[in-house]
Amino acid sequence: MTVSVLWFRRDLRLGDHPALLESMKADARVVPVFVLDQRLLGHRTPRTERLFASLADLHETTDGRLVVRSGDPRTVIPDLAREVGASSVHVSRETTPFGRRRDEAVEAALATDGRHLVATGTPYAVGPGRIRTGAGTAYKVFTPFARAWREHGWPGPAPHPGAVRWASGVDSEILPRAATSTDSPAVGEAAALARWRTFLDERLADYRTERDRPDLDTTSRLSIPLKYGEIHPRTLLAEVAAHDAAGSAGAETFTTELAWREFYADVLWENPDSAWHDLRDNLTHLPYDRGPETDRLVDAWREGRTGYPFVDAGMRQLLAEGWMHNRLRMVTASFLTKDLHVWWPVGARHFLDHLLDGDIASNNHGWQWVAGTGTDAAPYFRVFNPVKQGLRFDPDGGYVRRWIPELRHLEGAAAHEPWRSAGGLGHGYPERIVDHDQERRETLARHESVRGRN
Ligand code: FAD
């Protein structure tokens, strides 16, 4: 009887899992393992708590056989393979710069012992690096990428594995206890599927028209399950197609949003340095603000005390829930980069520290999109107006009041402009830390000054 190792990373599920099916071939007993790599989990953040909760769920679905080991995968994985007598270690291919480097090192370490790292599938419907132009180059712009991605198509979901023969008796550390309760409906594979199917039945139809309304909670909120691989985009795409064969507006738009996730993974695959450096060099000479006064303003942004209610509501939701609506991610990122004139990695780092769905490809390229250094550069003169954005996308002020108790005394849209109401600022809400119109002009002047310099 053979034994194989299945090393879980961003794929914490059993359904639609090609690497699991591969590890079961030849009737193998499967050792499921997760490595607590201190380079990634050195200090506990909301995201590590969420990960531990998801691992607790995986421990249950693997009949309590999940093996947890701490250390550097370059030694932990080859040691485990040797210990259990497995000739291959199965993974879903990792596509981030860190993951690729790590896996190459693990593969080399396994090879010294005659063992193999076998990668099957990725966290994406189409593996990064696959969608290429006729000339064989990567796409730099989203729309043609999305068209080619749809034309390429994707495989259907992998069949459910049925009863897996998990190996028993392999030593495991005790899984760190998550501060997040595993009873929370938001954690684990079954919860992800349930959330998805509710969205499909109740929200998809109106998704195109309502997805921009943070006050209505109309998006899928699947970014967190997708981050941990509790659900795979192939499953989503197949079920959208089956549910909505005629391709309604909601189905079309939702598919396009998933294409953004695939696009940014592809951009990162092609440009590993763009994780923390400007993708394009158009703004290399742009002057950014720094120093103690800027630090004070950035702290106010981080804590949701800028005096702009829509911005502050988003930043407070991030701190409280570890999630923020896409509209708010754009508005708050614009505020940091264009009202406070701060280089985007400062904000990207803060988001990654707090977002439960924090993903280096989507987050850092989302930031670059807003900052104007990334793909599809929006015209540099597009600076989000935080008040107008609030009035448009939270017309009754409900979202702002939910997150800012100091503004609950203001009714309707008045919550977006407390400085206009008598006593509006009297409940502890701060004055605006900068004047948006003035900073917008400053941004435009700075951009003008560097145009054509590269
Ligand atoms: P839905 O509207 O239900 O969309 C469905 C799925 O499509 C999402 O779960 C996500 O996987 C994908 N998606 C939607 N919009 C985008 C997008 N613009 N870029 C990439 N994928 C998208 N998304 C993350 O998953 N992790 C991040 O760290 C992240 N950081 C961001 C930072 C900034 C500055 C910006 C502007 C966007 C960021 N996004 C990030 C993208 C987007 O905001 C979130 O995916 C979305 O808000 C998650 O909510 P949802 O699952 O309800 O989305």
CATH topology of the largest domain: DNA Cyclobutane Dipyrimidine Photolyase, subunit A, domain 3
What's the number of helices? 19
CATH architecture level-2 label of the largest domain: Orthogonal Bundle
> What's the overall geometry?
globular
Number of domains: 3
* SS strand fraction: 5-15%
The helix-strand sequence is: EHEHHEHEHEHHHHHHHHHHHHHH
Strand order of the largest sheet: 3-2-1-4-5
InterPro entries: Crypto/Photolyase_FAD-like_sf (IPR036134), Crypto/Photolyase_N_sf (IPR036155), Cryptochr/Photolyase_FAD-bd (IPR005101), Cryptochrome/DNA_photolyase_1 (IPR002081), DNA_photolyase_N (IPR006050), Rossmann-like_a/b/a_fold (IPR014729)
Protein name: Deoxyribodipyrimidine photo-lyase
Family: Belongs to the DNA photolyase family.
Pfam families: DNA_photolyase (PF00875), FAD_binding_7 (PF03441)
